[in-house]
Amino acid sequence: MNPTLQEAAAPAVPDEAVTPLIRGIAVLRQLTEAGGTLSLSALERATGLARSTVDRITSTLAHMGYVRLDGRDAVLAPRLMELGNAYLDALRLPALLGARADALADELDESVSLAVADDDGIRFIHQATRRRAMSLSFRIGDLLPVERTAPGPLFTTEWTAQDWKRWRARRAANPENRDFPAVPPAEHPRSAEEFARRSSRARQDGWALDDQLIEPGLVAVAVPVRDPRTGRIACAASVVSHTSRHTAAELRDTLLPRLRAAVATMEEDLRTAPRPEPAPAPSGLATWTGASKQELGREFVESLARGLTVLTAFGKGRAELTLTEVARATGLARATARRALITYEHLGLITQPRPGTFTLTPRVLSLGYPPLSRASLPHIAAPHLAALAERIHESTSLAVLTAAGNEIQYTARVATARVMSVNITVGTRLPAYATSMGRVLLADLPPADRALGPLRPLAPRTITDPRELARTLDEVRAQGYALVDEELEEGLRSLAVPVRDRSGRAVAALNTAMHASRHTLENCVDLVPALRETADAVEADLHVSARFTQVPLT
């Protein structure tokens, strides 16, 4: 939709709306549509805001941990996902149904998606994708037009005449769907009448097909998952494939019955799920924003920060909140919370299911979730490794155990400029038993699960006695770090700490390595707090990112 049509269609901004909050949301959306990174100059052009305003907004978002300023670029940061996580936690559907979708994907060896309605589009809330050369590229939070999807006709069975009118206006203004970045423009748009017929068939059949509407070769079949309490569609489950594996007719005839069986089980899960115990609401946010304003002065836009904290008031067991509950959860004055809620209603991020109660809409996922939901652990760790290398003036690395478990593989590395440096690149594999990162990861495993392999002497000091190595791993587990002194190579010392996932399992190790002439063993131990602080920062980002997504370790 072109800017003129957007302006004509957009409702007037309420008098009580918070202008800095509207501008901050615009910046986050532009960054999202750009894939997560834009220069400050490009943000200025894309939003139409003054450069000084863009600078203040990005400075505020950076202080909140929602973006990272990298030279002249603004980059979305994993912590921003806490806003989308608040919506998904409040919705409950990913937590209740995600495992069923994953199991169906494993059973069918096809991608399975869960999607909800978002006005005249659908938005993904869960993805169980198969890793193939040709695989599904949609992400959690991606918005697709209803007319080019399998779930779309299902949701239209609950549309009002006003909903159809709004859809027809949007489609007439932009039949190629150029305002939906997640899909390629439609080269040969289908008629509105054809989509109305698809909607009628979906009402009659109880399922719907997408036969290459998004792009050639992509096919999908979808079935509605109904809320047992209301009978309305809670979400739609889809099986997605490629015509090289299944035609649309084959999806209907072969996979639809199994999809329907899985959906029946999902609906039973919804029927029997106990009411959620409310998770603790965030606390002290208003105090933090006030202190940040005192610290940063004009560069911190307090009304933007306070407005964003309102979204985090929602979550598990807090799907619907009153104004009083929002103010209590955030510590904001009622008047401040009220203006933020009015602003979010205007922006379509919050709605009132009943007068006086507020709930988040799927549009909250448009705030950074799609690009961030595909971040890998090395991508998450990279800026933290860089900051650590600058702090300690030594190279830093991240590694994981290989599938066999007897080697480590480097997955991220930041090298420092020295005449004599440790020459290791991403992808390098080394024996786990003789490296600090390997020992940190082996120490986290039960002794019976440690794949040590043959203990060969790689250097004069290499531990090759299994009992001595077992004692060393027990010490590493107890002290929380590993220090390896010239066991991999003469003159090389390395120090590592674990990086743990949400369950507490060590999934990676973070280290620094240096020549023995630069640090005594005591000096190396003095670096442990810096490594641990960096690992804590990586873990914090990983835990937010992995709340509803699978974060690849490599």
Automatic annotation (TrEMBL):
One GO term of the biological process aspect: negative regulation of DNA-templated transcription
Molecular function (Gene Ontology), one example: DNA-binding transcription factor activity
Residue numbers spanned by region Disordered: 175-199
Residue stretches making up the HTH iclR-type domain: 18-85, 301-362
PROSITE patterns (UniProt xref): HTH_ICLR, ICLR_ED
Pfam families named in the record: HTH_IclR, IclR_C
Record domain IclR-ED: where: 79-272, 363-544
Domain of life from the UniProt record: Bacteria
Entry-linked InterPro entries: GAF-like_dom_sf, HTH_MetabolicPath_Reg, Tscrpt_reg_IclR_C, Tscrpt_reg_IclR_N, WH-like_DNA-bd_sf, WH_DNA-bd_sf
The entry's keywords: Activator, DNA-binding, Glycerol metabolism, Transcription, Transcription regulation
Compositionally biased spans, kind Basic and acidic residues: 187-197
Function, in words: May be an activator protein for the gylABX operon.
Name of protein: Glycerol operon regulatory protein
Organism field: Streptomyces chromofuscus
